[in-house]
Amino acid sequence: MSNTKRKVAIIGAGIAGTTAGLGLVNAGFDVIIYSDRDQASLRNDVPPTGTAVYFGKSLEYDAEVVEDLYDIGTSTGMSVRIFSGTGETRTPVIEFDSAFNYRAQAVDTRLRADDRLSRFLARGGKFVVRAVTPEDLDAIAGDADLTLVATGKGGLSALFPVDPERTVYADPQRHLLLATFKELDRADHQFAYRSSDGARHNWFNIHADFGETFFGPYLHKDLGATRAFIGFAKPGSPWIDIFNTVTDTQSARDAVVKLFATYFPEDVELIDQLEPLHEDPHSWLLGAVPPTVRRAVARTKSGHAVAAIGDAAVSFDPLGGQGAQNAIVQSVLLIRALREHKDKITYEWLQDQFNKHWDHRAEAATEVTRLFLGDEKYKTHAELLFQAAAVNAKIGSAFFDFLSEPQPLLGIQSREQIDNFIANLAGEAAETVLARFKAPSQLARANALERVTVLS
Ligand SMILES: Cc1cc2nc3c(=O)[nH]c(=O)nc-3n(C[C@H](O)[C@H](O)[C@H](O)COP(=O)(O)OP(=O)(O)OC[C@H]3O[C@@H](n4cnc5c(N)ncnc54)[C@H](O)[C@@H]3O)c2cc1C
């Protein structure tokens, strides 16, 4: 009997390529993944693409492709602190500590992709090490029933024109510093001054003018329980000069300590204990992502349809934590659709799938990212929701639901809709909730022997 399996070619073996590859092998397709690096090099010679926290719902999508392999890197909430000013004029503006209504998981993208690739190979998937050129892609697509381009933000993404109607920003909105550190001793005790759930809550420290920082539990591919830091500097922020001093793991650690000493001194005694991961020279990253939505289906020179997935299709500013989650949801929706679709896979069918993904998640994920970026469109949202979160725990948790399920944000646009959102959660008028808000005058500091009550 001849082999009637449909052939799929995937270019790129990051989270998007390996998830789609494993899912499609599981669904009975004959799949080849092409990668510019071999499996060991993907794991050991490059930094992780990002911290790639899965917030809630994306873990459910992921489970359709691979069982949950990780019990480290889990977080259960977010401790938020917002400040303005510098030096003598530095003032705390807001503090709240929210439990997530879900589980979040931060696992090294290199480990996730490596585990997927191993399973893909064990189930008969083929892996070819080759940097695919546009000419190669034409030949590869000519030989396959479906070709997916999962080459990330760079790579072959340029084959897919930017969609000006769906792309909001022309430039990167933040300069980024990512660094990973060893876990601290007695972490739960040390983190207790910030959160009710010790070391399991992430930190989100914001400076109203200069940028944001994220700090949370992380599973490193070799060293296990660690802490991931991401700094997000706004254009023109003095933080950019601090980030630009980073050349290795030690200078990354020194830059993070300097940032906290200057802008978030309440936490510096804890941060000062951090040790770099000298064992992994790729445990830090500097960069900036131009948030871009592409027309995710294109034709090669000879007219074969190819579809982009993951960052190659839509790249987000990482502040809203949407990129990897979006890649997973897009891959899973496509796998589900391909299980049902037995006809020829055409350009129009692929375009239809991308539009469905846009409607299902990608557009909302773009809007949630704008909310976190403090985009003009969402200034009122951020102001009201942060203040309401500071006086009502349910509102803080609901705010972070947007990271897991961004879609409801599309229905909360006007001032009235924001007020209704607050009122429905609080069981009283938004005005009453917001009237209780007072900026804190002092915040608890690291190493305090007991949890210090916030004076207001
Ligand atoms: C600082 C930071 C923090 C982040 N935090 C989060 C978060 O909390 N939550 C979240 O969901 N997302 C987050 N992200 C985004 C997330 O990391 C990415 O969206 C995701 O990892 C992208 O995966 P990908 O497979 O599409 O691309 P990539 O990981 O870039 O993989 C592409 C692969 O293709 C290969 N390749 C490229 N060109 C070719 C070629 N011509 N031929 C063959 N192979 C090729 C590359 O070498 C690479 O291995 C963050 C990103 C950053 C930068």
From TrEMBL:
Residue span(s) of domain Styrene monooxygenase StyA putative substrate binding: 152-268
Pfam families: Smoa_sbd
Coiled coil, from the record: none
Recorded superkingdom: Bacteria
Transmembrane segments: none
Position of the signal peptide: none
UniProt-listed InterPro entries: FAD/NAD-bd_sf, StyA_sbd
Annotated protein name in UniProt: Cadherin repeat domain-containing protein
Organism: Bradyrhizobium cytisi
